[in-house]
Structure formats: structure tokens, C-alpha cells
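Standup notes
- DV: blocked on the single-chain target, sequence here:
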Amino acid sequence: MKRDTNYIKPKSTEERLAEYNQAFSDIRNPDFEYNYERVIYQNEAYRTGDQRFYTEYLQHTYPQHLDEETKKFTRYSSQIDAMNREAAMHFVEENKILLFQSDIYILDEDAILSAFTAPSHYVDHFDMYESWGNLINCFVLPEILFLEEREVFLINTIIQ
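- DV (later): unblocked, structure below
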């Protein structure tokens, strides 16, 4: 699902859920990995360090994933670093990052970015513009992301 150009960043998790519910109204029972509600609750848990709502959501919706997701939270939550532009650019250069994937919409400052060191031939053939407007799992080249006006980049420092 893609965002239109008149998008205004939600002020709360509830507003974001309402927006995504509207955008994804035609999709029923998405799988675990691409369930936008799960991704939103997970984003909030990682950003705030409070996994209470994410845990409640998993218990109700995906109880079979609760143990695995709790372990994942413990492992990854301390690896998310809020970086300014200079630090993020240094991280990219130092680690030879070729691609970022966001959990929620790429232009939201509270999107958590996973860094990839993909082979250059993969990146050369990857159609970022196809995923640019996606609400979840957006891909972007670092140099394009750094053109955006944003003060903070939330980067998962575990490189994929």
C-alpha cells in the first residue's frame, strides 16, 4: 500500500493505526511479516523501549510468535541508535551500507531503518521507486534518504 503525496505524519500510534486501517482496508488477514498493525506496534516498542502494547497485541493476534518476538526485542532493542545526519552518513560510509529498509513509511522520522550491505548488482537492479511509497517495508538508497529534511535517523546497527 502506498501513501499519497498529501500525507501528514500521524501524531500518535492510534492515528497511524487509523490511517493504515484505511489504507489497507481491502487486505484481510495479512501474514505475520507484512501485518501493518504488528509493524506499527513493533515500531512503537522498539522506539520507546516499552513492549507492553506489542506483547498484548501478539498475545491476542499471534500467540505462536510471542516467545520469538520477545527474544528478538531483547536482542535488537539496544541496537537501535538515533543518529543525526552526520553520524548516519558516517555509519553508512564506515559500514559500506548500500540500502536501507524502513519498518513504517520511509519518510517518517520515527521509521526504524535496517541497513544492508547488498551486492552492488542487486542494488543496481532494485526498483526503489516501486517501494518508495509503501507504508511498510520501504527500501531506499542512503544517498536518496539523506536528501530528505530530517533531524534524526533511527538505525538498527545490526547490519543485514
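- Follow-up: Helices lie at 13-23, 36-48, 52-61, 66-76, 85-95, 120-124, 128-132, 142-145.
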